[in-house]
Amino acid sequence: MATEHPLVQLARRTIESYVRSGQRLSAPAELEGQEQRRAGAFVSLHRQGQLRGCIGTIEPTQPNVVREVIQNAISSATRDPRFPPVRPEELADLEISVDVLSEAEPIESIAELDPVQYGVIVERGARRGLLLPNLEGVETAEEQVDIALRKAGIHPREPYRLYRFRVDRYY
Question: pTM score > 0.85 for this model?
């Protein structure tokens, strides 16, 4: 197995600690270079090729990306409403990725999207839906927007705003 990126290692250690003992890790010294950067981040969990949890933040909610990953790793493993909390016996089988988001930029139309290169955010009032880029099974910008609209509970005929963003994805 290839060596995991330090942010993925952090997410893994955080999840293992929290699932096994309820202990929340503090930010490790070896990730000091990331300490100043603030960004939204998603932590995605897969087990046996199937999604097992994915929680993240569109905009930063923590003082830095390291703490953002710690917070979202715990949430992904224990608070994704689509799944029961991760059990200790599942930990060895988890595949983890971390997406660090760029700042979202408003766009005028779907034509400005590329589902491989950009993630999308749809917004109407307080309702927002997000879909990360380069997801298996999402081939077109229209599919990407449709999924994000469903996640947000926005009907496709309602007016909504579009934003796009890039990610740095780590495995």
Answer: yes
